[in-house]
Amino acid sequence: MLKTFTLILFTLLCASTLPAWSQSKSSLPSGSGPEGENANKVVKAYPNPATTKIYFEIQRNNDRVYEIIVYNFLGKKVDHLKNLANRTALPLDNYYSGLYIFQLREKDGTLVESGKFNVVK
After folding, report:
1. Three-class SS of residue 22?
2. Which of 39, 54, 59, 65 could hold 50 in an S-S bridge, CB 3.0 to 4.6 Å?
3. Residue 31: alpha-carbon gap to chain centroid
4. Residue 12 host element (H or E)
5. What is the pLDDT of residues 50-89, one digit of tens each?
6. CB-CB contact of 42 with 60 (8 Å)
7. Residues in CB range of 91: below 8 A, 6 or more apart
8. Reduced to 3 states, what is the DSSP secondary structure of residue 109?
9. Residue 113: half-sphere exposure toward Cβ, Cα within 13 Å
């Protein structure tokens, strides 16, 4: 009897003290969370993680000329892709396994967006 009462009391206490992060997604303001983040992205990198190639796809071109600079996780510049088309493939033959950071920049050097991708070999 005491075990049952303790279990019920414990369950009620846990249910009444749920942290805010465990609430449903519907309580989040619009534009937040993973769905809202993708709506504002200019460049999409896929597949992630990548093994042989990664594709960079410009979502909103607006007749601008973009370039992508790729850095390894230590901050060393690894690659520089200039005059990007709407979809550009980057071969990963000379890349090691690990995390890489890319920056999408306009031709004048203004940072537009940054992101990361993982290489798995």
Report:
1. helix
2. 54
3. 15
4. helix 2-16
5. 999 999 999 876 788 899 999 999 999 999 999 888 899 9
6. yes
7. 52, 53
8. coil
9. 16
Tokens of 85: 């088309």
Nearest by Cα to 53 from 82, 79, 75 = 79
How do residues 28-58 score in pLDDT, each as one tens digit?
Answer: 444 444 455 566 889 999 999 999 999 999 9
Where on the phi/psi map is residue 38: left (φ > 0), alpha (ψ -120 to 50), or beta? alpha
**81 within 8 A of 95, measured Cβ to Cβ:** no
Distance (Å, rounded) from C-alpha 70 to C-alpha 78? Answer: 5
Residue 27 DSSP class: G
Residue by residue, DSSP assigns 32-86 as -HHHHHHHT-SEEEESSSBSSEEEEEES--TT--EEEEEEETTS-EEEEE-S--S
The rounded distance, in Å, linking the Cα atoms of 68 and 84 is: 8
For residue 71 the two structure tokens come to 């850095």
CA torsion 61-115-75-51 (nearest 10°) is -100
